[in-house]
Amino acid sequence: xxxxxxxxxxxxxxxxxxxxxxxxxxxxxxxxxxxxxxxxxxxxxxxxxxxxxxxxxxxxxxxxxxxxxxxxxxxxxxxxxxxxxxxxxxxxxxxxxxxxxxxxxxxxxxxxxxxxxxxxxxxxxxxxxxxxxxxxxxxxxxxxxxxxxxxxxxxxxxxxxxxxxxxxxxxxxxxxxxxxxxxxxxxxxxxxxxxxxxxxxxxxxxxxxxxxxxxxxxxxxxxxxxxxxxxxxxxxxxxxxxxxxxxxxxxxxxxxxxxxxxxxxxxxxxxxxxxxxxxxxxxxxxxxxxx
Length: 291
Known about the structure:
Blueprint: E1 5-8, H1 12-23, E2 28-31, H2 39-43, E3 47-48, H3 52-58, E4 61-64, H4 69-76, E5 85-88, H5 94-105, E6 110-116, E7 129-133, H6 136-146, E8 151-156, H7 161-188, H8 194-208, H9 216-226, H10 236-253, H11 258-275, H12 283-289
Parallel strand pairs: 1-2, 1-4, 2-3, 4-5, 5-6, 7-8
Antiparallel strand pairs: 6-7
């Protein structure tokens, strides 16, 4: 018999996780504040716990997928959790996760945190992966069970790291796609369709992650780690001037200019900080200082 698992929280993500455990032969106990959400899972073989205490008693491994960490406190406070390994895959800030670890440890249990890097339909699929942080020995102990959800990528002992990675990835994902949508809107003002623009955008995004001379993800990483940002003919001053033009183009297209102006202002603040002759990676010096 495969290891039993308890799933707390049956929103779209938690429900899919419970279904995935069941399909892979793991005895699965579920609990949700709205018990009726468990009905389809019970029909598939899951056991519905009547209380959080009953849910925790059913399995050493407890996977939590709720709206936020406050939901964990509200749901599990007062329930016996001694000896349990709680794997919280909810979203939160790094410090929030660190406080949660202290709370769980105060109840003689242990916490692993995770950032799920796919939407609910991607759970259990070949490209799915989850970033985990916390005590690595706990992940190793339950890796076979957790692996059915996706690749178990360990990022470090600090429980806050998983969601720091998660938030960084989300910011990169959202900002890239939003910039793409903004670019589409700019071109639409001149009658260019999104599909006409898509091949050019694809070429740019693909090149960024490549190993060739246009592989700027690699180039930026190397420059940031080395603390050296050569500008040459493509200096921050030249990019700031070009960013002015991007704002003008957006305004003339009649579209929202907040995003382009934020980028332009960052560039000019970098120039004003003395990096006008440096390269793009020098913006990190301004970003690190905060507002």
